[in-house]
Amino acid sequence: MEQNPVLFAGSHQFQVPGNAQDPPLSALLHYPCGQPSRLTRFGPYELDVSVDAPAAAGRFPLVLISHGSGGAPLLYRNLSLALARSGYFVALIKHPGNSLGDNELHGEDLAGAEPILRNRPRQLLALLDALLQDPAWAPAIADEPVTAVGHSLGGYTVLSVAGGQPWTRAREPIRVPHDSRIGALVLMAPACGPFLAPGALAGVTAPILALTAEHDRLTPDAEVRAALGAVPDPARVIIRTVPNAGHFSFLSPFPDSMRNPQFAPANDPSGFDREGFHEGLPTLIQDWIRSARGALLG
Length: 298
Description:
Elements: E1 8-16, E2 25-33, E3 38-42, E4 45-51, E5 62-66, H1 77-85, E6 89-94, E7 98-99, E8 102-103, H2 114-133, E9 146-151, H3 153-161, E10 182-188, E11 208-213, H4 221-228, E12 237-242, H5 274-297
Parallel strand pairs: 1-4, 5-6, 5-9, 9-10, 10-11, 11-12
Antiparallel strand pairs: 1-2, 2-6, 3-4, 7-8
Helix pairs in contact: 1-5, 2-3
């Protein structure tokens, strides 16, 4: 039996120019490559990557990752690198106006956040368009449905582009774009409050894997189940509650130098093993994506 070639993870900062409606945005690309990797520092993190290396020969399924409010691409580095080494082309957007160092939304309350709720889905699709039109990267991306992964407000973002119709607390619809290229969704502690109105998810037909946290006060398991229970075909939705996890447990583990009681993203409920959880999380998600792709591609 022929052996698959060893794949390393390439890393590249991708830029999308702005336009009259939106500012420029950036994304971190992690993708399969054949060039041996080395430990490289990215701020407080060390990643085993091949910086700016060409992609390996072939075309790879695309995975988009949308971070939570005030977050950043590198917070999902364990997942993205594991996917890249397994043959996926991963693009982690940095949402302008709602990311680390550039955040118009302070705190977790979405009241008054309608501009951000409108902009995020449009930003994600601008990245998708730019990648598929880029002469350097488009040839490495498979012509097949895209998997979109979102954590927290990133979960809201990917549900929106997959056909969801979000609503404000004043019961006004939020205008967001939808895109049929989004074929599968992975939601991690998703912000589902804007989708609790009747019919809000009537347009979502993509298969969904939703992971919730047992001790999540920001995006409670019950709220996620209430929203996703209203999709047209609930049989296409898998919801798994991670025992003893908190809202931020889905972020890659932080270096010891960043862990302190005042930094909530680095903390978990007592007894939760974030390192151990993240050893298995990429495999869980990869297995589900593989199954969903198989069903979509026939």
